Amino acid sequence: MWFFILMELTVFAIFFIGFAVAERLNPQLFSGGRESLHVWVGLVCTLTLVISSYFVALAVVKVRENNNPAAKKLLLTALLFACVYLGAKLWEYRQLIELGYDLSTNTFYTLYFFTTAFHFMHVLLGMIILAYMALKTGKNVYSQQNCQGFEAGAAYWHMVDLVWILLFFLVYVVH
After folding, report:
1. What's the helix, strand, coil split of the chain in %, to 5?
2. How many helices (H) and strands (E) does the chain have?
3. So where does this one cross the membrane (predicted)?
4. For residues 171 and 123, what is the distance between their CA atoms, to the nearest angstrom?
């Protein structure tokens, strides 16, 4: 899992570098692009993923305490917050598309849609992993002695959260 996470972080780093270089070459285009984004949506997405990661971290603690039922509830809560992220992001995509912005509009929107959609797919994969973990906790599969798989899934989710925090600042905040 750590190798997979490292590979994913490398791909995101390439996106971030491309975004930063393109912005450096055309700051006015990127400034205008940011003005069309909804900063509050980015903030909602950030908060929901951070809160979701908090619940996943608590679930890891519960598994280490051999409390699978509590871990399952915490994972389901994390998934609920992840659903809020999905809803907010889909709403923003729809708003931008209705305004006529898409991948072909300009470099800003190409990079915005590619990078955030790539992250969106990682959130979906992470949600599948969390759901699988919740199913296994419902069957009391994990224990203090057998929690490596659970911790690996949690690490992936935290990577998804970390990447979004960086994306939020790069795309929505930094000018």
Report:
1. 85, 0, 15
2. 6, 0
3. 38-61, 73-91, 111-135, 155-174
4. 17
Distance CA 38, CA 106 (A): 18
What percent of the chain is predicted at pLDDT more than 70?
100
Residues 137, 70 contacting (CB under 8 angstroms): no
Say which amino acid occupies 112: Y
pLDDT digits (tens, 9 = 90+) for 81-129: 999 999 999 999 999 999 999 998 999 999 999 999 999 999 999 999 9
- Burial class of residue 82 in the structure, from the number of CB atoms within 10 Å of its CB (0-12 exposed, 13-18 middle, 19+ buried): buried
State how far the Cα of 174 lies from the Cα of 170, in Å rounded to an integer.
6
Nearest-10 Cα torsion for 43, 48, 53, 54: 100
